[in-house]
Amino acid sequence: MQTPALEVKRSFFRTIVEQGRHPLTPLRVLNESTHEAKLAFRLVPPLLVDTFHLSVEGYYVVQGVLGVAALAGLTWLFHHVGYSRREAALIVFGLSLTYMGAVWFVDTQPYFDAIAASGLVFALCVPHPAAVFVGGSIAMWTDERSILALVVIALFHLYRQRRDGAIAVGAAIVAYAALRL
Question: Cβ distance 179 to 169 under 8 Å?
């Protein structure tokens, strides 16, 4: 017998699977105030679930792997910008105890915040403009709130004197806005 909370999660995941089969077709949601009603432009999760035939449990594995990769990337980044390895590891350990750690390792509600956060970390860590564009695009097509964080990532690239990284972030935002309108 399933607990009610687990059934809600599976119900939401079924909505994601349905959207993955027809990603450009608007969802028929009965209640416009639900989280499912806000998924119209969140295309990465349904395409990921459909392409790799993920179950809820399979997605949780992907979420954990993304968390390990993102935290490793952040450790590298903090060390690369001047912190010692020990300081970088401690900063990332502290970060893993916040909401971001929960998104990757504790969150059982499949809202796919782990994908958006991992895309943002990827866009932050990589120097190549095409990779920055891809990471930013993945984040925005997973959760539109990523645009705010991408502005900070663009500023970080400018601070690191990587103008092409900041331009890639801007291009990703413009492409997202153009395709969404």
Answer: no
Spatial neighbors of 153 by CB under 8 A, at least 6 apart, are: 120, 123, 124, 132, 136, 169
pLDDT tens sequence across 90-132: 999 999 999 999 999 988 877 899 999 999 999 999 999 999 9
Among left, alpha and beta (phi > 0; psi -120 to 50; other), residue 161 is left
The average pLDDT across 48-58 equals 91
Q: Classify the phi-psi angles of 180: left when phi > 0, otherwise alpha if psi is within -120 to 50, otherwise beta.
A: alpha
Phi-psi region of 6 (alpha: psi -120 to 50; beta: other; left: phi over 0): alpha
Whether pTM > 0.90 for this model: the answer is no
Residue with tokens 């891809």: 134
Q: In the numeric block, which tokens belong to residue 29?
A: 């949601």
